Each structure stands twice: as C-alpha cells, then as structure tokens.
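Hypothesis: this fold can be encoded by more than one sequence.
Test: take the structure tokens below, design a sequence, compare later.
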C-alpha cells in the first residue's frame, strides 16, 4: 500500500473497491462505473466537473449512479471511448475538481496536464517546472495523490532513469496506458 494514496488506504480498510463504492452509496455520492479495456474506472462528477477518476478491480454492484447523460460525464465517457480506441485525446477540455489538494499538489497536477499525449516526463522535470528542483520526492507523493487519473495523466510521469515509478492503478495499467499512447514499453524499465 502506498503512503501517498489515501484513497487506496481507505479502500483497503473498507474491504476493497466495492467497499469504497458502498461507502459512497451510503453517503449518497453517486458515481459512474466505466468499463475500459484495462478494468473498471469509477468516475465521480461534481456539478459540472469531474472530482474523482480511479481504477477498480471489482465489477460494480447496484447503487446510486449518475446517468451518463450528465453533460460533463457524457463528454468524459465519449473521450474515454476515443482514447481507449487509440485516439490521441487531450483531456484538458474536461473540467476537473482539483481544489481539494494543497497548493503544491495543485501545481504538480496542473503541470502534469501539460504533458502531451504519447510523451513522458520525469518527476524531476515536474519539480523543475514548478520551480522546486529539490522536491522530486514530494512531487512523487503529489503525483500519487492525483484524484483524477487519466484526465490528469499521471501515468505519463516516470523516473529520470527511465524506470516507470509507481501508479495508483497499478504498474500493469501504467504500462498499458503508455503502450496505448505509443510508448515503447521495452525501453522503459
């Protein structure tokens, strides 16, 4: 379990992804479960923004769900469909809720959004971009706390030495996402 991913810790404490879904349902926080080629993706819209996107191992059970007709959710689903079909998508047009992070985390997440489709950048590159060149480890923690995976493409962040680093959705999914975007995974360690 990663210290930098509080959602994962909560999910594990509740008995996994389905436990987290049940907790959201108990508190009336509807979500939408998107079936991607690499697993279920839970999406939580908040008004006209997306506040959470996370991979789930469990198939969704019944419970409150947003209808896919909600405009921000419908657009997100359409872009995910195109993305997983191999389309070069820039998710920047989707409004995301990043206000729950610290100022530092928000700087990191906004910088991640600048990484073009099909390219990777290092944690150090992000630290340099935000003017905090000695904060590589803190950048890694902020990347791991990204609440809107894929939309803020943290899978495009790797270590300076070419090692993939971590990923909240798991390293296999990180490899799959990078391969989908045309990265030669064999050259990444």
């Amino acid at each position: 379990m990663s210290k930098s991913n509080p959602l994962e810790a909560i999910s594990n404490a509740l008995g996994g992804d389905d436990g987290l879904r049940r907790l959201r349902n108990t508190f009336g926080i509807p979500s939408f479960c998107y079936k991607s080629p690499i697993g279920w993706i839970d999406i939580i819209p908040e008004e006209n923004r997306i506040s959470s996107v996370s991979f789930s191992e469990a198939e969704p059970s019944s419970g409150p769900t947003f209808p896919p007709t909600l405009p921000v959710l419908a657009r997100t689903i359409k872009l995910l469909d195109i993305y997983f079909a191999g389309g070069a998508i820039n998710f920047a047009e989707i409004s995301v809720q990043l206000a729950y992070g610290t100022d530092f985390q928000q700087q990191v997440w906004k910088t991640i959004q600048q990484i073009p489709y099909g390219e990777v950048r290092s944690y150090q590159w992000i630290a340099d971009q935000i003017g905090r060149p000695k904060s590589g480890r803190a950048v890694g923690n902020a990347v791991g706390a990204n609440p809107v995976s894929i939309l803020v493409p943290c899978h495009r962040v790797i270590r300076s030495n070419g090692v993939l680093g971590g990923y909240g959705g798991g390293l296999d999914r990180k490899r799959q996402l990078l391969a989908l975007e045309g990265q030669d995974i064999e050259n990444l360690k």
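The first strand starts at residue 32 and ends at 36. The first helix runs from residue 6 to 13.
Hypothesis status: open.
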